[in-house]
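Standup notes
- DV: blocked on the single-chain target, sequence here:
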Amino acid sequence: MKAMQFRYETVIPIDCPDPNITIVLQIPAAAFEGYGGNSGFLTFSPQKNEKDVRLRELIAAMFSVYEKREYGYEFKVKSQFMEVLYLLVTQFQTESSDKGELKQKKHLDRLSKVTAYMKENYSRELSQKEVADHFGFTPAYQKKAWLRSQ
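- DV (later): unblocked, structure below
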């Protein structure tokens, strides 16, 4: 399992020891609000021990409860989801001290917000100036940011 970094619209691949089973758990970024430290970003790293096993087992159990859909299953799934969040922030979260890495993450976060805005307004014509103005950028800065991300 590789280190996991959470940003808006991010897909995180993890290894699965069981063949032909893939479970995707989509966690809204808002679920981690207040846990990103000064950078506003969370970085999670695998532990290669019983913590990884516990996380995999918990997600598999949550899926099993969801699949059966027995009376009251929503409460159980929600409680297991909260436990997944708890494990992520208490057992897997790591501090990133690399300033270049943090700068790149902030840059990508800004671009994600711009992309989301453009998707929301896809049905109408948007100018580069309008998008830049919406986010408080100059058109020149916006162009430079896009080119840097390529």
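- Follow-up: The two ends are 27 Å apart (CA to CA).
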